[in-house]
Amino acid sequence: LVATVLAAIGLYGVMAFVVVQHLSPDFVSMMDELLVRQTKLPVHTVTDGMEVQPNAIYLIPPRKEMIISGGRLLLTDKDPSQGFTLPIDLFLRSLAQDCSSRAVGVILSGTGSDGSRGIRAIHEAGGLSIAQREETALFDGMPKSALATGVIDLTLSPEEIAYTGKKLKPLVHP
Question: Which of 39, 82, 88, 114 has the smallest number of Cβ neighbours within 10 A?
């Protein structure tokens, strides 16, 4: 799903895409391999302090939490004693603080409510909040939770999200 959206958006030169998944520490993600095959954008697994550049995709590494500050992605180790974490909320809150009205948060298919607090922070900062339309989501928990906040600007299918991303190009300034 993420690969489909990013492949359809294409190259812009003004936007970066940060993918934050909430995965089990034991799960081996194939996201990087999928994205490399489906998009022309360079795909980076984040290292601590990595500067975000436009026209690239950044993936959170396993067993890490991530924020953005000063245009750099900062990693910390997930505390193994802390079973339940909200990595999407954590990242989106930092994105709202770092980018304010230039922040765009997208909540795609997933279980639980991760992302709903972060999407509210993006809205409060004047950014754009997008949720996947529930009926198009394999797992609708995250989109439903985001919609329940009452602050989602656009509710779209993955194809519509990609189309909207293309239209955002003139609106986003580095």
Answer: 82
